[in-house]
Design a protein that fits this description.
253 residues; 19% strand; binds zinc ion
Length: 253
């Protein structure tokens, strides 16, 4: 396995999808944001075997230059590796809701038990407790040293979901968005039959993200988009469904 540079400051360092960065079939896309001086990781994967993830990160930078792992949300494929990251000296950050649920590895609030029983995870999969996760405030910035990421409240796929944004390269260029499980290439979404999937809030979240006019989109699954027109078209596709009160097509089928 090996890290894949996707953009000037973005590497793919783990994924359940194909390619050299593949770590584990149960992992989401895990990104490294690295500007040459400072960096963060976005999402921690399932935790089933986290060593290849951090080995990929080590190909690009020393852990000492990283300001931690930002979690988009509490689902096992994104948050299960949080405890492993902490055991390797990395600080983990998430929304207050996510931080609270993961502190005890709460498989009810995070839906890990339900997902396991549905066959999403192996029968012996358990969400590892990760106490001491730092709380990110939606609407505020996560801005250590030379980094600046916006922290965007984005409920709908599940409670406590966050999207992270890097500022555009210049005044004319929109932000780079790390969208977790909110929206994927093609304008698909992830609606699941779980108690905290809220389709009305989902529509509001997608509409507000569309207004940011992103220049690049790095989703939690599937491939990225680095074309503002294509991103706008995908948001318009999803919004056209929500506007008619119809769920957009699911990324998972
Ligand atoms: Zn999810």
């Amino acid at each position: 396995v090996t890290a894949v540079r996707l953009a000037e400051q973005v590497w793919l360092v783990g994924t359940g999808g194909p390619g050299p960065a593949h770590t584990n079939p149960y992992d989401c896309n895990q990104y490294l944001v690295w500007n040459g001086t400072d960096g963060v990781l976005i999402d921690a994967g399932s935790g089933i075997d986290s060593r290849p993830w951090l080995d990929n990160v080590a190909e690009v930078t020393d852990f000492e230059a990283l300001h931690g792992v930002l979690l988009t949300h509490w689902h096992g494929d994104h948050a299960g590796g949080a405890a492993f990251a902490q055991a390797n000296g990395l600080t983990v950050w998430a929304s207050p809701l996510t931080s609270d649920a993961l502190s005890t590895g709460d498989e009810e609030r995070t839906q890990a038990r339900r997902a396991r029983e549905a066959g999403v995870y192996p029968a012996d999969y358990r969400l590892q407790p990760a106490p001491g996760i730092g709380a990110l405030v939606p609407g505020a910035a996560f801005a250590p040293r030379t980094l600046h990421l916006s922290v965007i409240d984005s409920p709908g796929h599940c409670d406590g979901h966050l999207v992270f944004g890097l500022p555009g390269a210049n005044d004319d260029s929109g932000p780079t968005l790390f969208t977790g499980d909110v929206i994927f290439a093609g304008g698909t979404v992830s609606l699941q039959a779980i108690p905290d999937c809220r389709i009305d809030l989902y529509g509001e979240t997608v509409a507000s993200l569309a207004r940011l006019d992103a220049a690049a989109l790095f989703p939690g699954h599937g491939h990225d988009l680095q074309d503002a027109a294509a991103i706008a078209a995908d948001f318009a596709f999803a919004n056209s469904h929500f506007d008619r009160l119809i769920p957009p097509p699911n990324w998972l089928v």
